DNA sequence: GATCTACATGTAAACGTTCTCGTAACTATT
DNA sequence: AATAGTTACGAGAACGTTTACATGTAGATC
């Protein structure tokens, strides 16, 4: 049974003063006598007063809510980003409302179309991997809702974006493979059209170019981001005409999938085929052999995205910004050619 | 720059009718002529009308928000639970507002104290592992806010709870170890006072009892839930007077920690010391040897919790319910005594 | 043709705040 | 003592909806 909660009116009645004064006492300090203020505050805590955000939101034309649209949260990267977002939001008294698209464009569109600036102060979004119409986001932006994209950003929309340095990360990954003695390097990556996919692919080509190493179209496989996709891609590479001696995966899940597939085919990972991933998912330390990878600043991406969004919310004319955070190489067993492997 | 959005008044003005009629046309179907209704709907879509939830919330005394309090989301179990929650919430047009406590009682208390039934229709909560005062939750319930606990539930609070069958899961886990030939079985578990910890511990003792197997106090180690805790606990067991030949871990993260620690000490997992976990985290298939475990119905726990909460929200006198979902055994390599181990 | 009923719509209060204005009571200035 | 300025507070509108109640119109009933 829902009880009636304490309102500003209750406090006013108890003290025999007006609601206006109570409101001021609760918020501003000016224009109200210290003693009055104290009395109000005392009664407020005594009656366990909590502001009604519907009411404040209605009059101030703002909720303290920011929406977060994300393909999935059951993976290290995204859940860490959200943790970062949440951290900043909490510090600034903003709530985060979570929308999970399950990486489906239909869900994404349905969700976004239902959003409005009457229920949200701003939006943080990571688009689903198969989305290619972005008008639903553009509409929201045109309506005046501040939007910041992260990780999977939309190139054609002008707004703030936060991502890791995909190009240099990929470059480092491939360079590491080359320096470790691999020279038939394949790349299993995400769907086309995603800026992240493009940039990592570009980094891959750039590194090959710089070291004068050949690549073949069949060595670049576009598919999804899951572990299963990684397994399938690896099998495809193994079954091809030219079998590579190293695989650069667009993320650690795919890299792990590839490692599992290779192991099942009795291929010694590292020794025969090197594998490097991208993310620094904790599984990269658990899989055997442990996985070399490019560490993404997931938490920082969350922090930065949310900070940027808050700036947009607070200054209506804050200029859109693109933030690129550094990635860094972590070398483990999967890119080392003859290691004294630890037992199993 | 935030634009003014379309309101019900705009629609009324365009059509020269009253806001009441527009409101009715938008919601009920009765008491408004079909043609009028159609005109309203047409204008609404044309002007891209979206209801202002602050306003509706204010008058209906309800937001469509449910809060979710959770220690962390960067792990398989919790992120999957949330995905389940989100699924039901979305289907029922409820938003979920996410609060992450980082497993800290101070954060939890601060967050809960700021909550109120003017901003939330209900709350789903999983308490932090070190919390032992629960008055902050009780206060909220006393205020009339529907609360459903999941996983880590609070025994002393009367409200709906959803959890997996911890007792039987633990029983199965230990039974499996026994049937695989282990008989010096240790248990590394979570903090005392948590119902989940207690129930799994009880299941552990019950299985040992049933098979007439001895246990020793030093074989039951209470600590945190992290992988690191698992490593430390395992080392403690190895360094003890009586070294066990099997470890039942309260969750997969700790089990993985234990496996890693054992491997570093050149102990053959499975062969020499069996390990079984709890959760069925995807890492359990990736770690080597693969980890036997008790699969928790994480997604279903999310679904069920949210469904239950919605019932509480909709029926103010809905009776509190305790739901216990089944866990099931998944046997892999870590509990098999001599396996033809796959290459590394 | 008067009354009754049903239907479709309008009027206005209410939800809990914030905030602009107005104003009484002081204090300061001359 | 008259005036101006300051301080602390109140009145009331506004935010966008919903909803109880009132009202007007049309057809049905006698």
Name the descriptors.
homodimer, 344 residues, alpha/beta, 434 Repressor (Amino-terminal Domain), Rossmann fold, 3 domains, four-stranded parallel sheet, 13 helices, 15% strand, elongated, disordered C terminus, DNA-binding
Order of helices and strands of chain A: HHHHEHEHEHEEHEHEHEHEHEHEE
Corresponding CATH architecture of the largest domain in chain A: 3-Layer(aba) Sandwich
Distance between the termini of chain A: 58 Å
**CATH-defined topology of the largest domain in chain A:** Rossmann fold
Helix count, DSSP H or I runs of 4 or more residues of chain A: 13
Low-confidence stretches of chain A: 340-344
Task: Write a compact overview of the structure shown.
The structure is a homodimer of 344-residue chains. Chain A has 344 residues and is of the alpha/beta class.
Could you characterize the architecture of this molecule?
The structure is a homodimer of 344-residue chains. Chain A is built from 13 helices and 12 strands. With 344 residues, chain A is α/β, with parallel strands linked by helices. Chain A has 3 domains: 8-51, 434 Repressor (Amino-terminal Domain) (Orthogonal Bundle), CATH 1.10.260; 62-164 and 298-326, Response regulator (Rossmann fold, 3-Layer(aba) Sandwich), CATH 3.40.50.2300; 166-296 and 330-335, Response regulator (Rossmann fold, 3-Layer(aba) Sandwich), CATH 3.40.50. In chain A, the strands form 3 sheets. In chain A, strands 2-1-3-4-5-11 form a 6-stranded parallel sheet, with helices on both faces. Chain A has a 4-stranded parallel sheet with strand order 7-6-8-9, sandwiched between helices. The radius of gyration of chain A is 26 Å and the shape is elongated. Chain A starts with 7 loop residues before the first helix and ends in a 14-residue tail after the last strand. The model of chain A is unreliable at 340-344 (pLDDT under 50). At the A-B interface, helix 4, helix 5, strand 2 and helix 11 of A face helix 4, helix 5, strand 2 and helix 11 of B. Strand 2 (95-100) of chain A pairs antiparallel with strand 2 of chain B, so a sheet runs across the interface. The structure holds a DNA duplex (30 and 30 nucleotides).
């Amino acid at each position: 049974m829902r009880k009636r909660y304490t309102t500003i009116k209750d406090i006013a009645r108890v003290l025999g003063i007006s609601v206006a004064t109570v409101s001021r006492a609760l918020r501003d300090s000016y224009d109200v006598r210290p003693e009055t203020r104290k009395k109000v505050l005392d009664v407020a805590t005594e009656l366990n007063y909590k502001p009604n955000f519907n009411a404040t939101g209605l009059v101030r034309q703002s909720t303290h809510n920011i929406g977060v649209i994300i393909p999935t949260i059951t993976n290290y990267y995204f859940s860490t980003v959200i943790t970062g977002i949440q951290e900043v939001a909490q510090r600034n008294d903003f709530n985060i409302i979570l929308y999970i698209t399950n990486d489906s464009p239909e869900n994404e569109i349905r969700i976004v179309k239902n959003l409005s600036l009457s229920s949200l102060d701003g939006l943080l979004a990571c688009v689903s991997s198969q989305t290619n119409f972005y008008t639903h986001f553009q509409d929201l932006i045109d309506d005046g809702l501040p939007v910041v994209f992260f990780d999977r950003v939309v190139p054609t929309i002008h707004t703030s974006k936060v991502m890791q340095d995909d190009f240099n990360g990929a470059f480092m990954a491939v360079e590491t493979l080359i320096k470790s003695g691999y020279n038939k390097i394949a790349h299993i990556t995400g769907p086309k059209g995603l800026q992240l996919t493009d940039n990592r692919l570009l980094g891959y080509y750039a590194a090959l170019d710089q070291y004068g190493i050949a690549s073949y179209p069949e060595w670049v496989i576009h598919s999804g981001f899951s572990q299963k996709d990684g397994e399938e891609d690896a099998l495809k590479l193994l079954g091809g005409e030219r079998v590579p001696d190293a695989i650069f995966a667009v993320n650690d899940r795919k890299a792990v999938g590839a490692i599992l597939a290779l192991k099942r085919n009795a291929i010694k990972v590292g020794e025969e085929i090197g594998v490097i991933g991208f993310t620094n998912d904790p599984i990269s330390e658990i899989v055997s052999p442990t996985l070399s990878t490019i560490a993404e600043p997931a938490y920082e991406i969350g922090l930065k995205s949310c900070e940027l969004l808050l700036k947009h919310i607070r200054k209506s004319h804050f200029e859109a910004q693109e933030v690129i955070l550094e990635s860094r190489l972590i070398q483990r067993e999967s890119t080392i050619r003859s290691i004294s492997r630890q037992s199993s």
